[in-house]
Amino acid sequence: MIHWKTRGPRRALCCAVLCGALAAPAAPDGFREMMDEAAARMHAAMHVPYTGDPDRDFARMMIPHHQGAIDMALAELRYGKDERLRRLAQEIVVAQKQEIELMKLALRDH
């Protein structure tokens, strides 16, 4: 254990570590990476050729859109601290999964 009364390099190192921790960004790089990857996957998957069937095209584009919301909600659940937003993220995961299943069912019927 390093005591605050310690002098010299050990004290300087301890202060540097503490100051670095306090200055760390609120959102870890992992959060940004998860969000960026989710958005990139979502946008790429939404680019599908139109079939001429509005219902089919809607579902084919909305499924990746909803999956993107799930992926982003998972990033909030992993890194977020605000309990209100974490609860919302949990609700998003459940609701969006149900809606994806509905759209997949509709696609099978078309």
Distance between the termini: 68 Å
Q: What is the C-alpha radius of gyration, as a whole number of Å?
A: 22 Å
Name the CATH superfamily assignment.
Ferritin, core subunit, four-helix bundle
At the fold tier of CATH, the topology name is: Ferritin
Please summarize the sheet with the most strands. Answer: none
The tally of domains stands at 1
Strand content: under 5%
Describe, in plain words, how this protein is organized in 3D.
This protein has one domain: Ferritin (Up-down Bundle). The protein has 4 helices and no strands. The radius of gyration is 22 Å and the shape is flat. The termini are far apart. The N terminus is likely disordered.
Short description:
The chain is mainly alpha-helical and 110 residues long.
List the helices and strands and how they pair.
Layout (H helix, E strand, L loop, with lengths): L8 H15 L5 H18 L7 H26 L3 H27 L1
Helix pairs in contact: 2-3, 3-4
Attribute tags:
110 residues, mainly alpha, Ferritin, 4 helices, 78% helix, flat, disordered N terminus
